[in-house]
TrEMBL record:
The active site is at residue 381. Mn(2+) 2 binds at residues 242, 325. This is 3'-phosphate/5'-hydroxy nucleic acid ligase. One of its GO terms (molecular function) is manganese ion binding. Binds 2 manganese ions per subunit.
């Protein structure tokens, strides 16, 4: 029996060779193909009821033992930054540290509830990757371009900058370009898995676009208080973007998350979204390859957005910085190679440059990582929500929100009410909690902001 047939019958990848042997033995003893398939399928699907099966009982026993959840004797150690973090986020982090694959964790000051691992959660595992601990918007990232133009241009050329954002950006789920952009990422192999092969045509049409939810492109003023980053102290015009791998990343995340949960049916309900794929399995290797491709695709989206804006402005970029979250990295900590998941958290290794945004009216910070090992060299990815989208829509109205935005000297072109500034934590407080993780080098103040239209389903 071929490997694909065994997989279709529900055999775990690590049990393929063992199952082949049992199938051969069963056929040699006269069991016909139809009965082999049926009994094998029962042994895999209901192992606890098939321990005494004369042909596949040993497989049933192995499957049952392998799929039983074996919790760590003691939770993996982890540390919290910040105070009064949401109870559900803290509980999710505690649960993640119960996994047998977990090594160490951290919870950032911008934490709030997510699927499986909380937003702001950092988890190091051994030889395993958790699709939902990476996140649905794989490799969501921020990128900043600083121009050789004074910040006063935000006011002097406001209409032109507004037109540039309207012309050079595209937001929203399902939105595609009628004339697709080209990029070297599209020349890569997308056929290594069914899901990436299937999603490529859509990815081509969405390349260079932004998502919805908290994704944005905005012009603003970057203030550098002392000579650093290769810039002289002063205030500059800059553009900042935030979005990820769009529909392609979502498809990859959903496919492999469902596959991981199918392969770990013995997990308790509260841990089901933390189902993992081992890196020495075909599925684990395939997901890792897909995740890294989505990382390059997300980077390409930002590259195209910034190239179009640079061309429209006719300005010279002095500096470009970018970093991503919702990803997993192979890193060495505690003297061993680990898989470090950062879901809504960013790398902050020694001297790593990064960007930590606030909200559409509040400061964003350019930072340098300090390489703090207790955080697994991580930092927050933003301000973090303090309420759900549903609650935000119940509490706020556009009349009050627009008045507040205008008082901050910000021009908002479009956004959802559930992205109102008050749904976010105080970014300065988040940064204060994180002063042992990063050093602040510069401050960006949004002035012209574009997000997806109100009513779009969130994609962040």
């Amino acid at each position: 029996m071929k490997e694909k047939q065994l997989l279709d019958l529900g055999v775990d990848p690590e049990d393929i060779e063992f199952a082949k042997e049992l199938v051969e033995n069963a056929r040699a003893k006269g069991l016909n193909k139809k009965k082999v398939n049926r009994q094998l399928q029962l042994a895999v699907q209901k192992p606890e009821a098939n321990f005494t099966n004369p042909y596949f009982g040993k497989l049933a026993q192995k499957v049952y033992q392998d799929r039983r959840f074996k919790e760590r004797k003691e939770p993996a150690p982890w540390k919290i930054w910040g105070e009064d973090l949401p109870e559900q986020a803290v509980l999710q982090m505690k649960n993640a540290c119960r996994l047998p694959i977990s090594w160490r964790g951290a919870l950032m000051a911008d934490a709030h509830q997510g699927y499986g691992l909380p937003i702001g959660g950092v988890l190091a595992t051994e030889n395993a990757v958790i699709p939902y601990a990476v996140g649905v918007d794989i490799a969501c990232r921020v990128k900043m371009t600083v121009f050789d133009s004074p910040a006063e241009d935000v006011d002097k050329n406001k209409d032109f900058l507004v037109d540039t954002l309207q012309k050079d950006t595209l937001f929203g789920i399902g939105k595609t370009f009628s004339k697709p952009h080209d990029h070297e990422v599209l020349q890569e192999d997308w056929s290594f898995s069914k899901v990436t092969k299937h999603i490529k045509p859509r990815a081509i049409k969405q390349l260079g676009s932004s998502g919805s939810g908290n994704h944005f492109v905005e012009f603003g003023e970057l203030t550098v208080s002392q000579d650093t980053l290769g810039l002289q102290a002063g205030t500059y015009l800059a553009v900042l973007s935030h979005s990820g791998s769009r529909g392609a990343g979502s498809a990859v995340a959903n496919h492999y998350s469902q596959l991981a949960m199918k392969l770990r049916p013995g997990l308790p309900k509260e841990l089901q979204h933390l189902a993992w794929l081992t890196l020495d399995s075909e599925e684990g290797q395939e997901y890792w390859q897909a995740m890294e491709l989505m990382g390059r695709y997300a980077a390409a989206n930002h590259e195209i957005i910034h190239e179009k804006i640079i061309k429209s402005l006719g300005a010279t970029p002095l500096l470009q910085i970018e970093n991503h979250h919702n990803f997993a990295w192979k890193e060495v900590h505690d003297g061993r190679e680990l898989i470090v998941h950062r879901k809504g958290a960013t790398p902050a290794g020694k001297d790593d440059l990064g960007i930590i945004p606030g909200s559409m009216v509040n400061s964003c910070y350019v930072v340098r990582g300090k390489g703090d090992e207790t955080s697994l060299s991580s930092a927050p990815h933003g301000a973090g929500r303090v309420m759900s989208r549903r609650k935000a829509k119940q509490l706020f109205n556009w009349t009050d929100v627009n008045q507040m935005i205008k008082s901050k000297n910000v021009t908002l072109l479009s956004a959802g009410l559930d992205e109102a500034p008050s749904v976010y934590k105080d970014i300065d407080m988040v940064m204060e909690y994180s002063n042992d993780l990063v050093e602040i080098l510069a401050c960006f103040q949004p002035r012209i902001v574009k997000m997806a239209e109100d009513g779009e389903r969130p994609e962040d």
